[in-house]
Design goal:
about 80 residues
Length: about 80
């Protein structure tokens, strides 16, 4: 969200949601994982609570960003 809203970088935000990595100066590499990816990598880990955005919220955010990107691209075409 920060990439899209505060930094006005919708493309980078959409890439992260599509599974591509990114970097942040204070945190290093940013990756998006599904909850079940983590338990596949390490079967001994049990996820007991999920805090923050849930998968449904993430899917909604991705659709919203795709719509915003479409509008942004259409507006850019008009300015050319």
């Amino acid at each position: 969200m920060q990439m899209a809203v505060l930094l006005d970088d919708f493309e980078k935000a959409n890439e992260i949601l599509d599974g591509k990595g990114s970097t942040a100066s204070k945190f290093g590499t940013i990756r998006y994982y599904e909850d079940n990816d983590i338990t596949k990598w390490e079967p001994q880990i049990t996820i007991s609570d999920i805090l923050g955005m849930h998968n449904e919220q993430t899917k909604f955010l991705k659709k919203t960003l795709e719509a915003v990107m479409y509008l942004y691209e259409e507006d850019s075409k008009k300015k050319k």
